[in-house]
From TrEMBL:
One of its GO terms (molecular function) is protein serine/threonine kinase activity. Pfam families: Pkinase. InterPro entries: Kinase-like_dom_sf, Prot_kinase_dom, Protein_kinase_ATP_BS, Ser/Thr_kinase_AS. SUPFAM superfamilies: Protein kinase-like (PK-like) (SSF56112). ATP binds at residue 46. The gene is chk1. One of its GO terms (biological process) is intracellular signal transduction. Transmembrane segments: none annotated. PROSITE patterns: PROTEIN_KINASE_ATP, PROTEIN_KINASE_DOM, PROTEIN_KINASE_ST. One of its GO terms (cellular component) is cytoplasm. Residues 17-286 form the Protein kinase domain. This is CHK1 protein kinase. Keywords: ATP-binding, Kinase, Nucleotide-binding, Serine/threonine-protein kinase, Transferase. Belongs to the protein kinase superfamily. CAMK Ser/Thr protein kinase family. NIM1 subfamily.
Amino acid sequence: MSQSSSSKLRFPKVAGYQLVKRIGGGGFSTVYRAVNFDEHRVAACKMVTLTLETTKQARKTLDREIRVHSALKHENVLEFITAICVEPDEDLPYYPGLYMLLELAAGGDLFDKIAPDVGVGEEIAHYYFTQLVDGLTYIHEQGVCHRDLKPENLLLDAAGTLKICDFGLCSVYRLKGTNKTRRLCELCGSLPYVAPEMSQTVPYAAEPVDVWGCGIILFTMLAGNTPWDEPTKKSYEYSQYLHGLCFDADPWTRFDRGVLSLITGMLAVEPTERMTLAEVAAHPWMIQPSQLVHKGPATLAAHLTASLRESGDLDIADPNLESVDRDGDLVMGQNAHASQFTQSLQLFSQTQAGTRYTPVLTRFYAAIDPLILLPLIQDALTELKVKWKPAVAVDLNSGDDGETNNGDGDKFKEKLIRMRIGGYDRRRLLFKGWVELEHFTYNGTEGTFCVMQRDQGNPISWRQLWKSVIMSPGVEPYVLRKRAYKKE
Ligand SMILES: Nc1ncnc2c1ncn2[C@@H]1O[C@H](COP(=O)(O)OP(=O)(O)O)[C@@H](O)[C@H]1O
Ligand SMILES: [Mg+2]
């Protein structure tokens, strides 16, 4: 497709929903917030580009994702609403691709709220891990294996309920109504989360690989980091685990005996010795009553973000500039975002245009102009060995979220500055995302509202990068913190 014809293309409406803002992406997709303006409803739309070169195999995989995901209905599985396809050889004014309309996870990523190397307390880990096991038990009952359980595929809805998403790597291993299971052979997933048997060439049993994924997730919730780079002898930490030498060291020493036996049961190297999901669900740590279940959404949000509060990270993401009435009198066009849970999580922020819904907590306010802050952030990124592309100006009023190339500084004034960045985290996993800078004036304070939005990669690593940027010597002096704004 030529540049001139592609520039005329737009997004189709999907079941009455218009794609309005990019909110995430993965290895293969871009995810947008989608709004049905007639019905005042919001959703998410996952878009995968199709070209004339898209292989049959890739299409088969996408078909499977749609077929399987659309059949799954459970409280802890992200709801699939519908899908449409725009073929690349159709003569339509739309970007060719598969558009999957999904329930919006308005609470953002679960792991975006977890402080690196600190993790969450056992209570909140128990609360969410139980939901993960419930959702996965249902998925397995349908004969489906997820195969890509990892932090970035666990989202929260507006009420703070866990939603398993991304069935891009799933597989049907048991046909409904039969007891016949088949072994799987495709090697997939990313190394820190995959089960050891998946790196061998023999077919593997389906259910145990998801149980392993659950073990990695529970560990990551409690420790704020994954246990190893990869489950092979190449990894020092994994070798220490194999030889039982890790248990005297942090973070393993932090785990109580009950939860430790559950984690090691799920991370049994031999799949036949690994706990089954039913055994996980029946483990004493799992069946203990939860104190959180009966408490309200505000308490839930406070518990979830306790580690961010203690480190002061939340005061930076939300330095009390907002005009939101704490009792909930929030003026919002799209009410589906606003719940007591999302408000307590501080997912709304004050910008030039008013109160904006920003599901990511990796953001900050700085007391200087965007054009002065930009080079300071670029220096910090270079120092951190993170690659960045030249910044572009995005017209806030164009509605299509399109990017226009910058020329002079003036253009930035009315617009948002966006810069794509990417690199590798300490587990050698690729991350990508962007930094957005927007000018703000509020109650006599002027400066920049900066959002760091992750596209791909581990949310905890992304949070670590955010922390490094705001703590860098160039940026740190200008970061606005809550203390300065406390009313007497
Ligand atoms: N329904 C949704 N609501 C909010 N954010 C979403 C939703 N679906 C996906 N995302 C965001 O987009 C990212 C990529 O979506 P995912 O389905 O995992 O795509 P991929 O197959 O490309 O990994 C997720 O990690 C999440 O941050
Ligand atoms: Mg994903």
